[in-house]
Specification:
elongated; 207 residues; mainly alpha
Length: 207
């Protein structure tokens, strides 16, 4: 079973195609698999290399078309040859998330943050999985790390703002249930609940 509509299952097709063609937007910026992992601290996020192997492009297209078996075959065979390759590992995490293997997806992305701590997109996708589990505090920390790594990462900034808003709504709900809630609490909570953007918002991920 896939992710809920409020998180991963509705991954933006536009974001998925960002890794497929030259006319699309930039996406994750994995460090070369031949380079050692930098475990000493944060590094600035970098855009994805402008080109990708035909096999990787084909596998991403399989994911975009929801051809899970074909995508899994490509991912597994290439990781057998290049087990540290961050692009194939990232795609494996996306594939696990899409087919509902949340624990496996979290494990893949967490290991990627350890081996390639500079990759902002990995933190963003991991945060989306934790939002799906309603762990907003952990998602907040991950998204803050993402924008710290890459200050121009618009998607992570938007997701972080949505998480902040959800946390605010939760705090206002608790305040409204207290013994002596302020009259302004209900007004603020009603305002947030009526926001169309929040009613239909979802935490978006990169493919």
């Amino acid at each position: 079973m896939g992710m809920t509509n409020n998180s991963i299952i509705a991954l933006s097709l536009a974001l998925a195609l960002a890794l497929v063609g030259p006319a699309a937007a930039q996406t994750p910026a994995p460090q070369s698999a031949d380079q050692p992992a930098n475990r000493t601290g944060l590094m600035p996020g970098r855009p994805m290399a402008p080109s990708a192997s035909p096999e990787l492009i084909e596998a991403r297209e399989f994911v975009a078309r929801q051809q899970w078996r074909e995508a899994a075959d490509r991912v597994e065979s290439n990781l057998a040859k290049r087990p540290r390759d961050p692009q194939w590992r990232f795609l494996q995490g996306v594939l696990f998330a899409e087919i509902g293997k949340t624990a496996e997806a979290i494990s893949v992305f967490e290991l990627l943050t350890e081996d390639f701590p500079e990759l902002a997109e990995t933190y963003n996708n991991l945060a989306a999985l934790y939002v799906d589990q309603n762990d907003l505090q952990k998602a907040r920390l991950l998204l803050e790390r993402a924008v710290q790594n890459r200050p121009d990462y618009a998607l992570a900034h938007e997701n972080l703002a949505d998480v902040y808003t959800r946390l605010a709504m939760s705090a206002y709900q608790k305040a409204a249930k207290s013994n002596q809630p302020s009259p302004s609490v209900r007004l603020k909570l009603d305002y947030l609940n009526k926001m169309p953007a929040m009613r239909s918002s979802r935490i978006l991920t990169n493919r």
